[in-house]
Amino acid sequence: MATYLVQAAYTSEAIKTAIADPQDRAAHIRKVVENLGGKMHGFWFSFGDYDVVAVFDVPDNEAAAAFALAIAGGGMVKSLKTTPLMSSQDGLAAMQKAAKCGYEPRIIAK
């Protein structure tokens, strides 16, 4: 399973609708993630650039893309950002591979 952070900013129409008829969007999003074979770890309201944040696991990038497409295609968000997350162990493994990959931080003179 792969873990993702999703941040979404609602349209003004979506916010107006939510105020007029508050609903538990976390329950709905949890079901969507489960339908994609995943598990939601959390769903939070926030303020600033994004209105909601969710963290979930899904089997692969295809499932994460399907989630993003479904949400963006629904017309109720004006911005959606999906960030793949890595465990600290995977991050450490990436650092170890980077140390051995042969990259040299220099500019080659012409």
Question: Can you tag this structure with a few keywords?
Answer:
alpha+beta, 29% strand, 4 strands, 110 residues, Alpha-Beta Plaits, 4-stranded antiparallel beta sheet
Chart the SSEs and their pairings.
Blueprint: E1 2-10, H1 12-20, H2 25-35, E2 39-45, E3 52-58, H3 61-73, E4 77-85, H4 88-100
Antiparallel strand pairs: 1-3, 1-4, 2-3
Please give the radius of gyration in angstroms: 18 Å
Give the quaternary arrangement of the chains: single chain
What percent strand?
A: 25-35%
CATH H-tier superfamily: Dimeric alpha+beta barrel
If you had to describe this structure to a student in words, what would you say it looks like?
The protein has 110 residues and is an alpha+beta fold. Helix content is 42%, strand content 29%. The protein has one domain: Alpha-Beta Plaits (2-Layer Sandwich). The protein is built from 4 helices and 4 strands. β2 and β3 form a beta hairpin.
Q: How would you summarize this macromolecular structure in one to three sentences?
A:
This protein is α+β, with helices and mostly antiparallel strands.
